[in-house]
């Protein structure tokens, strides 16, 4: 033991003197002494109550009743079904921001769309291929057919009509557009385009101009992405209202129909970019579509509870609808069938309505299907679509579990089947059918896209 310093020796002497003085005064020492009694664990007077037992009740209520009658304890872990974790995406199948036009062209070149001798001018006649037969029972989603082209909720979706390879374009609520080369291998399959500053609610690839991707934004801007050069050109801007969507077909004269929040529909000539504004409804127009068999006939779906058919061979003077279909609530989407003879509408009262005889000038309501599409705010509203080349089958997202897609049949007058996959675990909002290949793509609120083929 090391020798004590002078200070420590003096300190010990002072302590001894103080102890002696305290004993003379009859006062116990303040220095704690070693405990002679073994320490005991303090017992709680009021132990905390045990947590209540939790039971997972099946939909039919039989599980809880059986557990109560048998007296067997049923824990939450034993009753709850084990949920399979969602497989992580390959980082290569997640869209990243492209920093320069050169990077964008490089991505499009991998997809076979960049400068390859193809003229950027639209052709006068479009080569229309018949869609391949779609065998619904054979459709599935492979792990490699899942990707995240955009970082946020998908608000617009389209499939490129190319036959040699499948290209899907998705737009989200923050203005991002992701072009996904589904069958790409080895390199980054997604090209990222930031064409707008707000919600992208319209993406269209015209049949007579497959090298152009037309886009619309809620802030009123209309742009065109040249897929051969990567250039983004602002084509038009509607400043007095919001833009809610683009038509899927071109009307007579090559016009795109633009749905507006003030009840108007703007006709945009994709060749001259001239705008012709038409006042068609008193409230906002959610959807407007050209008939594939009558390019002068336009169908509009509005917040005023109506779907109207318009003959736009002449737009001079006051316009009156040729036919008006009344609904119980606002109509969020309208689509023509492949022949143009039928029309399906998506109404906010959770119904789908099919109207027949549009080519005979004597249209009538054919069927009404009940379908729960009261989607929450974070889910893009459902939009019923016709299967490619079909006048019978209708497809749209579903809130039912397990997650998947509902397919209705006009001939069967009801739900025909459902498309489900084990790697689809979220609500799918938008659906796009490939116009040529036997495939379709659906999207969710997380920016992911799933390909059924």
Report on this model:
With 453 residues, the protein is mainly β. It is built from 4 helices and 28 strands. The strands form 7 sheets. The chain has a 4-stranded antiparallel beta sheet with strand order 1-28-27-26, with no helix packed on it. Strands 2-3-4-5 form a 4-stranded antiparallel beta sheet. A 4-stranded antiparallel beta sheet has the order 6-7-8-9, with no helix packed on it. The chain is elongated, with a radius of gyration of 34 Å.
* Broad shape: elongated
Percentage of residues in helical conformation: under 10%
User: What does the largest sheet look like?
Assistant: 4 strands, antiparallel
The percent range for strand residues is 25-35%
Main sheet: strand order? 1-28-27-26
Termini separation: 84 Å
- Give the helix tally: 4
- Give Rg in angstroms: 34 Å
Structure described in brief:
By secondary structure, the chain is mainly beta. The protein has helices at about 5-25, 60-70, 75-80, 100-110; strands at about 145, 155-160, 165-170, 175-180, 190-195, 200-205, 210-215, 220-225, 230-235, 245, 255-260, 265-270, 275-280, 285-290, 295-300, 305-310, 325, 330-335, 340-345, 350-355, 365-370, 385, 395, 405-410, 415-420, 430-435, 440-445, 450.
């Amino acid at each position: 033991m090391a020798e004590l310093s002078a200070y420590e020796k003096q300190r010990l002497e002072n302590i001894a003197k103080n102890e002696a003085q305290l004993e003379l005064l009859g006062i116990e020492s303040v220095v704690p002494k070693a405990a002679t009694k073994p320490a005991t664990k303090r017992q709680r007077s009021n132990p905390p109550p045990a947590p209540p037992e939790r039971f997972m009740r099946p939909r039919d209520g039989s599980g809880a009743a059986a557990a109560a009658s048998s007296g067997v304890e049923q824990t939450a872990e034993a009753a709850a079904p084990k949920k399979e974790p969602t497989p992580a995406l390959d980082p290569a199948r997640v869209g990243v921001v492209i920093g320069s036009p050169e990077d964008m062209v490089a991505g499009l070149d991998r997809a076979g769309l960049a400068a390859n001798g193809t003229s950027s001018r639209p052709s006068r006649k479009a080569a229309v291929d018949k869609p391949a037969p779609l065998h619904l029972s054979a459709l599935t989603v492979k792990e490699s057919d899942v990707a995240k082209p955009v970082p946020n909720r998908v608000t617009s979706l389209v499939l490129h009509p190319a036959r040699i390879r499948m290209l899907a374009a998705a737009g989200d609520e923050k203005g991002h557009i992701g072009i996904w080369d589904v069958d790409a291998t080895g390199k980054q399959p997604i090209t990222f385009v930031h064409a707008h500053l707000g919600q992208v609610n319209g993406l269209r690839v015209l049949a007579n101009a497959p090298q152009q991707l037309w886009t619309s934004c809620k802030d009123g801007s209309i742009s065109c992405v040249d897929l051969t050069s990567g250039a983004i050109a602002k084509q038009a801007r509607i400043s007095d209202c919001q833009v809610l969507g683009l038509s899927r077909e071109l009307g007579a004269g090559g016009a795109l129909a633009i749905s507006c929040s003030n009840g108007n529909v703007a006709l945009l000539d994709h060749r001259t970019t001239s705008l012709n504004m038409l006042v068609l409804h008193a409230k906002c127009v959610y959807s407007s579509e050209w008939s594939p068999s009558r390019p002068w006939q336009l169908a509009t779906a509005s917040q005023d509870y109506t779907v109207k058919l318009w003959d736009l061979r002449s737009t001079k003077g006051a316009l009156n609808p040729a036919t008006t279909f009344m609904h119980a609530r606002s109509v969020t989407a309208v689509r023509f069938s492949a022949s143009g003879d039928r029309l399906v509408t998506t109404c906010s009262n959770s119904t789908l309505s099919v109207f027949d005889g549009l080519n005979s000038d004597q249209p009538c309501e054919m069927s009404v299907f009940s379908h729960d599409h009261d989607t929450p705010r974070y889910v893009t509203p459902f939009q019923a679509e016709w299967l490619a080349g079909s006048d019978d089958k209708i497809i749209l997202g579903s809130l039912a579990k397990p997650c998947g897609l509902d397919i209705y049949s006009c001939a069967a007058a009801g739900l025909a089947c459902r498309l489900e996959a084990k790697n689809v675990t979220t609500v799918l909002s938008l659906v796009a059918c490939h116009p040529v290949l036997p495939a379709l793509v659906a999207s969710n609120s997380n920016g992911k896209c799933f390909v059924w083929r």
